[in-house]
Amino acid sequence: MNMRKPRRAAKEISRRENKLFGKKSDQAKLSGRASAKPESAMKHQKPLGKVSSKAQSAMEYLMTYGWAILVIAVVLGVMYYLGVFTPHGIGGACVPQPGYLCQSPILNSSGYLSLYFGQTGADQIIISAVACTNNESQPQSLQPLSPQLYAQRGQSDQIIVKCNGASGPLGQQFNGYLWIQYSVGQQANLVGSFATISVQISKLNESVNQIPSGSSTTAASSSTSTVGSTTSSTTAPTTSSTTSSTTVATSSTTSSTTLSTTSSTTSSTTSSTSTTSSTTTISPLYVATVNVGSQPKYAVYNPSNGYVYVMNAGSDTVSVISGTSVVATVTVGSGPYSATYNPSNGYVYVMNLGSDTVSVISGTSVVATVTVGSSPFFATYNPSNNDVYVMNYNSGTVSVISGTSVVATVTVGTLPVSAAYNPSNSYVYVMNYNSDTVSVLR
Known about the structure:
The chain has helices spanning 4-21, 24-44, 48-81; strands at 93-96, 100-108, 112-119, 125-133, 143-151, 155-162, 173-184, 187-203, 224-226, 259-262, 279-282, 296-302, 307-312, 317-322, 325-331, 336-342, 347-352, 357-362, 365-371, 376-382, 387-392, 397-402, 405-411, 416-422, 427-432, 437-441. Among the domains are: 94-250, Immunoglobulin-like; 290-441, Methylamine Dehydrogenase, Chain H (7 Propeller), CATH 2.130.10. The model is unreliable at 40-44, 86-90 and 209-283 (pLDDT under 50). 33% of the residues are buried. The strands form six sheets. Strands 1, 2, 3, 4, 5, 6, 7, 8 and 9 form a nine-stranded mixed beta sheet that branches. Strands 12-13-14-15 form a four-stranded antiparallel beta sheet, with no helix packed on it. It is an alpha+beta fold. A hairpin with a 2-residue loop joins strand 22 and strand 23 (405-411).
């Protein structure tokens, strides 16, 4: 039997198998790779135990601290609702008429609006009353300012006024108009709408007297006037007696340190305001109440007759008081603002801020009216020459009056507001408010 044929047949079969399926060594390599893939994949697969452990830790963290986070979120929400994070007056706008300033409006939930108002014109205006309405119609009555404001050029003064229809919750929008009664030059008691107001209620039922320190104002210093209701049965907001720049306009007012007045309704311990009081409790220091003219601004004593002369800025008069009684009411110029006494002739010199004059009073009569510079603001007596030095606020001058005549006009710094006499050298020192200087005169 020939053995080569089976061997050839076996080789032929092997060759054909290799051709169809590849060599056995190649199959082994492929088989090794295939078996290695699942093993490497298993290395990168995350164990189920670790995933569930992290999820459990997250759930435990939320269960432990979730209530604290929720409480903090609620507290922050309440504080935001109460306006803790809201700057006072944010979003508020006060758009004035050309030539005027209106800044930093703040409105509380009782409808009281605080803002800074001023003017940029050359002429001083005297503001005697204001009103705030929610429509364009001119109000029938305005709320009087006490004291009235003397708005100089570039000066802003704070005004607090009750706005009609402005009370409500925090965040409520109010759109309204600011009305002003004013005098300028020889024109008196003019009324006009000076600004449009758009502001949200940003304070609860509390005082709006405090203005943020960051509020902008063109004045180096500013005064404050508060207006109260013109109805005697309504009590106006009051402030502490230590705040000298804020006053209250009501039908009758009394200081809490000297007098407490009660009527049918018991008043607060700070002060009470009523025109029909039935019971009066008097402190040991209190003597009497003397009724004088409108808006008493300043007083000076005359030792030659023992009289006290009271400047009534709102009624353009001077009330002459002897003891506790008014013995005379003297008509003077517009806006009597201050006065000084001249012992050399016994005259009282009254500065009429609104009419640029000085009224010279002897006893209870005007003996002369002296024309001086613009807006006579203050005066001082110089005993070395018996002259009176008058500070003319708007014209930057000092008028020197001898008897009843102007003998000299001296140019000084900007806005002279006061002066002092030095007896050691007979010099008069003039304070120039807007130029940061002191002028020395003799």
